[in-house]
Amino acid sequence: MAIRIIKPTGNARRQMSVTNFSMLDKNSKREKSLTFGIKRSSGRNDAGQLVVRRKGGGAKKLYRIVDFSRVEHLGEKATVLGIQYDPNRSAHIALIQYESGEKSYIIAPANLEKDKEIVCDEKALVKIGNRMKIKNIPASTQIHNVELVNGKGGQICRGAGSFATLLGVDGKYAQLRMPSGEVRKVLAENFATIGIVSNGDHNNIKIGKAGRTRLMGRRPSVRGKAMNPCDHPHGGGEGGTSIGMSHPKTPWGAPALGPRTRNKKKAGASLVLSRRKK
Q1: Phi and psi at residue 109, in whole multiples of 5°?
Q2: Which CATH architecture has domain 3-203?
Q3: Burial annotation 1-18 (CB, 10 A radius, 16+ → b, else e)
Q4: Where would I find the beta strands (DSSP E) of 27-124?
């Protein structure tokens, strides 16, 4: 997937770039039965209080229902009708149709093409787009949309260009190397999809101008150092002084930018074999 550089017609667009979208099928239209409108909260709870900062505005968009599990059609072949753009995620999605005639959206892996046949089964051919149990996948295979809880559907490696590498299966568990470099254990009975998530150049896109960020629903971010002491621990001081403390903090006084936040008491913490390298 290539990146297209925008013609520098002004200072705002001089560094701007967008995805080329050459992988998408121009003739494939949005499936209306799998889309619906969602009400955005803009970071506020049911009482109208702001609970998540820097959210609001943004262009209107419809949500696509993506099937992260595919176990309802176990063993049933599906044909790819087209690769489409999804405004709700960084990866592209694929519209597929099963032999029964039912249509569904899935996360599109890289190099998945129109009219290709894919299947979800306990054991299947190791080819891009097929989904199967991890215990039946060969070692060193790149996988995505991996289940953490059996039957819940894929939860990890769903973003553009992400994948996990299967290191091996040892009894009940399989060892995966995550995109962060962390090595963890996952139940070998869980399902995963073969391949790398599409739109791998997503991280190379340059936003270029502030208005494009606002269209994404992201409001401006103000440094704590530029605030008053009553608004942020970093605030106050004369001129361009430092934050005045040995370690940075969040607006609520908790340590930030460095301290590890994983809860060691959680059951999943024991499944992590080696932490990611900083």
Answers
A1: -75, 160
A2: Beta Barrel (2.40)
A3: beeeeeeeeeeeeeebbe
A4: 35-37, 62-64, 78-84, 93-98, 103-107, 117-118
Does an H or E element contain 121, and which?
Answer: none
| End-to-end CA separation in angstroms for the chain | 28
Contact 128, 142 (CB under 8 A): no
pLDDT value at residue 114 = 93
Closest CA to 253 of 226, 278, 220, 224: 224
Q: Where exactly are the structural domains of the chain?
A: 3-203
Beta strand residue intervals within 14-116, DSSP E: 17-19, 35-37, 62-64, 78-84, 93-98, 103-107
Separation of alpha carbons 223 and 83, rounded Å: 40
What pLDDT score does 1 carry? Answer: 53
Question: In the numeric block, which tokens belong to residue 90?
Answer: 């960084």
Kindly give the residue spans of alpha helices, DSSP state H, lying in the chain: 210-215
Q: What is the pLDDT of residues 189-245, one digit of tens each?
A: 999 999 999 999 999 999 999 999 999 999 999 999 999 999 999 999 998 889 999
Residue 85, CB-side half-sphere exposure with 13 Å CA sphere: 10
Residue 217: Cβ within 10 Å count: 16
Asked if 192 and 120 touch (Cβ cutoff 8 Å), the reply is no
Q: Are 197 and 205 in contact (CB under 8 A)?
A: no
Per-residue model confidence as pLDDT tens digits over 26-41: 888 999 999 999 988 9
- Nearest residue to 172 (alpha-carbon basis) of 187, 194, 151: 187
How, if at all, do strands 117-118 and 78-84 pair? antiparallel
